[in-house]
Amino acid sequence: MLDEFKLYEITSGDGWWANKFAWQAGLKYIDALNVSNLDFQLEFNSVRPYTSSHFSQYGSYSNYRQSLAHPLGANFNEVVGIVRYQPIPKLNLIAKVFYANPGRDDTDQNWGGDILKNYETREMDYGNTIGQGNKNTILFVDLTASYMIRHNVFIDAKQIIRQSKSDLPAYNSNSSITSLALRWNIPQRNYDF
After folding, report:
1. Which pLDDT score, from 0 to 100, does residue 2 have?
2. Count of structural domains within the chain
3. Sign of torsion, CA 105 68 24 160?
4. Is residue 192 part of a domain?
5. What sections of the chain are H helices per DSSP?
6. Residue 177's domain spans which residues?
7. Which of 26, 111, 142, 161 has its C-alpha lying 20 to 30 A from 80's C-alpha?
8. Above pLDDT 70, what percent of the chain?
9. pLDDT of 87-140, one tens digit each?
């Protein structure tokens, strides 16, 4: 994704604030290691500071104050790993791991992470890098076992762990959710954020 950039400023490498871009790269390996129904997926996401922001919150790439692109907004790097395995026809096992390093804004700072903030209140014009501002690391792990007991009737066992560590107390949290569910003819609800 490209937005508001000047080629000269990109090639100079000075970290100009308006070099707004994001990219995603990924690989999928189906029937990995010659094991039937074993799939690996790896993704890397990177978004520069101030991407998707505007001088007005109404011009940002958002809807109902939520980012249209990625839940973290801007100013982050993220790695995603997913392993899917179906050892028998009715059992699906899925493991997902997300690791992200967003740079966070404090209430009186604008380092480019909050896409609703006016980009004219930025901290500096040059020297901007991904992850600048207040450091934050997020680890998200989702382990799921889903068994089809009858046609379109599933029992799902799930364990979710989310850890967020930051210098800002508002971004420090640890969550662990364990669930057992009966699901009938509807897709599984994902909380990958």
Report:
1. 79
2. 1
3. positive
4. no
5. 7-12
6. 2-184
7. 111
8. 99
9. 999 999 999 999 999 999 988 899 999 888 988 899 999 999 999 999 999 999
- Cα Dmax for the chain: 61
- Per residue in 142-174, pLDDT (tens digit) is 999 999 999 999 999 999 999 999 989 999 999
Tokens (6 digits) for 82:
């997913």
On whether the CB atoms of residues 52 and 73 are closer than 8 A, the answer is yes
CA distance 75 to 114: 8
Q: Is residue 191 part of a domain?
A: no
Taking the CA atoms of residue 118, residue 123, residue 128 and residue 134 in that order, the dihedral angle to the nearest 10 degrees is: -100
Domain membership of residue 8 (yes or no) is yes
> Which phi and psi (to 5°) does residue 59 adopt?
-100, 0
143 within 8 A of 159, measured Cβ to Cβ: yes
Residues in the chain: 193
In angstroms, the CA 77 to CA 100 distance is: 6
- The 10 Å CB-count burial string (b at 16+, else e) for 118-148 is ebeebeeeeebebbbbbebebebbbbbebee
Q: Which of 94, 93, 111 is nearest to 102 (CA)?
A: 111
Token pair belonging to 86: 């179906």
- Across-strand partners of 135? 103
- Asked if residue 190 is part of any domain, the answer here is no
Write down the pLDDT at residue 67: 86
